[in-house]
Specification:
10 strands; membrane; seven-stranded antiparallel beta sheet; Immunoglobulin-like; single chain; 216 residues
């Protein structure tokens, strides 16, 4: 038997090309997924920041001072019992705007109440509060004596006079709008409620206490 002098054929393993291509494809997909995730996170952060910018901060109305002038109730008994009252309030308000855009407000109004009944009213024209600024508003209100008597009755009014103090409540409303980024308009209303106690003897402000709120 003759021996074959030829060499056995070489055995070759699987070709590495498809494996490398598969690994490269997986890397590309992972990079794309990571990029999409980063973009989604950045978009969410940008949306949160935009919402924070577009949400207007609360304008604040503050009562800086209130003065009362005139004559508080006196009872005249002849020929018939009547009550004489001549009282004017002078209010100084400050409207602060913390927003990065101007606050354009309509007519600011203040209603004066005594024992829950409206007894006076004041109004100032519309205006603009600059961005992150403030403006001073001044108004006069004359108390309507007949409404004071109707609210308390002569007996209740005399009781307040004898006690030496009369308590009023001033409610101020400043409606307006804030335009953010030049095109997003938001309606805002600044409101303050102040309780003012007037001394009967000297027509002076004894105490005042205010609460502030904003309606968006």
């Amino acid at each position: 038997m003759s021996e074959s002098g030829g060499m056995p054929p070489e055995s070759h393993g699987p070709h590495p090309g498809p494996q490398k291509a598969g690994r490269r494809r997986r890397r590309v997909l992972l990079c794309l997924a990571f990029t999409v995730l980063v973009l989604l996170l950045l978009s969410a952060a940008a949306a949160i920041a935009l919402l924070a910018i577009l949400r207007p901060r609360d304008p604040v109305t503050e009562l800086l001072s209130v003065n009362a002038t005139g004559v508080l109730p006196s009872v005249v008994q002849l020929p018939t019992a009547s009550v004489q009252l001549n009282l004017t309030f002078r209010l100084v308000l400050r409207v602060r705007n913390p927003n990065p855009a101007a606050f354009r407000h309509g007519a600011a109004t203040t209603s004066l109440y005594y024992r829950g009944a409206a007894v006076g009213y004041g109004e100032v024209p519309a205006g603009t509060v600059p961005s992150r600024g403030a403006t001073i508003v001044r108004m006069n209100m004359t108390v309507q004596g007949d409404r004071v008597v109707a609210a308390a009755g002569i007996g209740g009014l005399i009781a307040d006079v004898l006690a030496g103090e009369m308590e009023f409540e001033a409610r101020t409303d400043v409606p307006g709008t804030v335009v953010l980024l030049g095109f997003v308009k938001r309606s805002v209303e600044a409101r303050s409620v102040c309780r003012v106690v007037i001394g009967v003897a000297d027509v002076s402000v004894r105490r005042q206490e205010c609460d502030y709120e904003t309606k968006l």
